[in-house]
Design goal:
- By secondary structure, the protein is an all-beta fold.
- It has one domain: OB fold (Dihydrolipoamide Acetyltransferase, E2P) (Beta Barrel).
- Helix content is 0%, strand content 54%.
- The strands form two sheets. It has a four-stranded antiparallel sheet with strand order 1-8-6-3, with no helix packed on it.
- A hairpin with a 2-residue loop joins β4 and β5.
- The radius of gyration is 11 Å and the shape is globular.
- The model has no long low-confidence stretch (mean pLDDT 96).
Length: 69
């Protein structure tokens, strides 16, 4: 499952690592937009296979954040 950005934002922090087992509702990253912190949650349990962002990155709507299998 690909997790993609729903808005333009800056990556505030990445809370996971590749290989981490995650459950539905776990927080993957915290985005910042208009001075608000927005958590990005896992919608499907699995293992994190890829992290496509790093703290400080500016992402656009639709950009890949992570892949969870």
């Amino acid at each position: 499952m690909e997790i993609r950005a729903e808005m333009v934002a800056q990556v505030h922090s990445v809370l996971i690592e590749v290989g981490t087992e995650v459950a539905v509702g776990d927080t993957l990253v915290i985005l910042e937009s208009m001075k608000m912190e927005i958590p990005v949650f896992v919608e499907q349990a699995g293992t994190v296979r890829e992290i496509a962002v790093a703290a400080g990155d500016v992402i656009q709507e639709g950009d890949l954040i992570a892949v969870v299998d």
